[in-house]
Amino acid sequence: MTSLGRASLLIGAGTVVSRLTGFLRAIVLVSAVGATTEAGNAFAIANQLPNNIYAIISTGLLSAVVVPQIVKAAAHDDGGRAFVSKLFTLGTVALLAVTVLATAAAPLLVQLYAPGFPPEQQALATAFAYWCLPQILFYGLYALVGESLNARGVYGPFTWAPIVNNVVSIAGFGAFIVLFGSISAVDSWTPEMIAVLAGTATLGIVVQAGILFAFWRRTGLQVRPDFRWRGVGLDQIGRLAGWTFLMVVVGQLAGLVQSRVLSDAAQLYPGVMVSQNAWLLFMLPYSIIVLSIGTPFFTRLSQHAAAGRDDDVRADIIRSIRILGLFVVAATAALAVAAVPASRIFTGSTDEAVAAAGVLLCFLVCLIPLAVLFVVQRTFYAYDDTRTPFFFTLLQAALVAATALGAQAALNAGVLGIEHLAAAIALGQALASTVQVIIATILLHRRLGGIGVRAWLTALGRFVIAAVPAAAAGWGVFLLLGGTGGWTTADKLLGALGAGIIGSVVLVVYVGVLALMRAPELAPAAGMLRRFLPRG
């Protein structure tokens, strides 16, 4: 099996390339439909619908339930072949049924998620949705095969496959611009335009899922259709997935409330498209750092939990949070001070970038807490406990919905301007997630009789102290480069370059300060990276 360090680097490298190509995809998409336009927000809503289902499948049922169960099934006499065959058959049938029903309900889904859109904009979003919703089937297959590969220690393909999806989308969106130019008004769209844009998005997901099947033989499993869904533990998955399903449903309901409120910003101001791109920037460090390092840890943590080695589980928790925190705190500081030039990558003007940066900054409030939540929540999953995560996620979802509705009430009362609506919703989500992490940590601490909270909180505090002068240095560089009126906000490419320069300064100062503080986490982190350098 791939070592933890090598697996982390493999996942991290793939994630970096995937995110960079994903950025390019978003840039080309914004060039085609705009960031705050009617067409841009219509497409954002339509393409969000299959992604919502994917969130249920991937971050809910599969990562929470399937990985631990496949790890346990490896001990069966047949190595888990019967279990995986039944699982894949059931999953494919369920995915196909959900895809058909969702596509048929496209008009209702669009109206449900975007009631603030005018009728013409809703009609365009519905036309996009008919092309986008079939992505559900292929997103699901991608998640099912990918998580199965992860459970068998084959980490690379799941991370690298989205790169091909991005390449397909970039080519298709680029072809759209060549054929039709930039189209922002809803009354300018033809069926051919809709087919090229939305069809490209779906084709990319089809290719992404298909690539994973080429790597399946590395698992050593032979999967055949098997409709006899009894006898190898699928009932256990059903019990575990019940709570997980409810947990993800309440999360999606909270997201639905956010989307409905955000649809009031149908055009001209930061809305659905701007929020999605701000979230894309937010997820860059989360994906590169948390997923690449945390995913291999989760597989090993699941093995320790299954064997009843609680002391090893506690050691995994402390080590993973400290290593994740080292990188995540630096990323938070860098992205915060480079928020405006980074946001310029996905916007059409400096003013749009400044407005979008406010949304990004509000999301960043919860980046460090979410890194902790990744470890804490998955520790519950490793012990086959999906009930407890449901309750602390229910609290988070309630707070997300309440803050979104509060922002809408403030908007209607004239207290909040519509230009700040997206930022207010993002801040509400960040605060709700922070409360969720606190509650989850307390519950896990009680369950395991301690999870080394003092040790990793002390480490996080040390990282934050180091990040303060690092962020100040980065902000000084931003001002020296002209601030919001400088060259870093002149266009998309210069925004990316400026963000890279500012982020590099933050990182250098951050590491320097930690070295002066003799932070013990630097050595294992450096060793993890040095192991994969040439001759390392």
Automatic annotation (TrEMBL):
- InterPro entries from the UniProt entry: Lipid_II_flippase_MurJ/MviN, MurJ
Q: Which UniProt keywords apply?
A: Cell membrane, Cell shape, Membrane, Peptidoglycan synthesis, Transmembrane, Transmembrane helix
TM spans (from-to):
7-33, 53-75, 87-110, 122-145, 157-181, 193-216, 237-258, 278-299, 320-342, 354-376, 388-409, 421-444, 456-481, 493-516
Its Gene Ontology cellular component terms are:
plasma membrane
Q: Where in the cell is it found?
A: Cell membrane
Gene Ontology biological process terms from the UniProt entry: lipid translocation; peptidoglycan biosynthetic process; regulation of cell shape
Q: Give the bilayer topology.
A: Multi-pass membrane protein
Q: GO molecular function, one example?
A: lipid-linked peptidoglycan transporter activity
UniProt name for this protein: Murein biosynthesis integral membrane protein MurJ
Annotated source species: Microbacterium lushaniae
Q: Which gene encodes it?
A: murJ
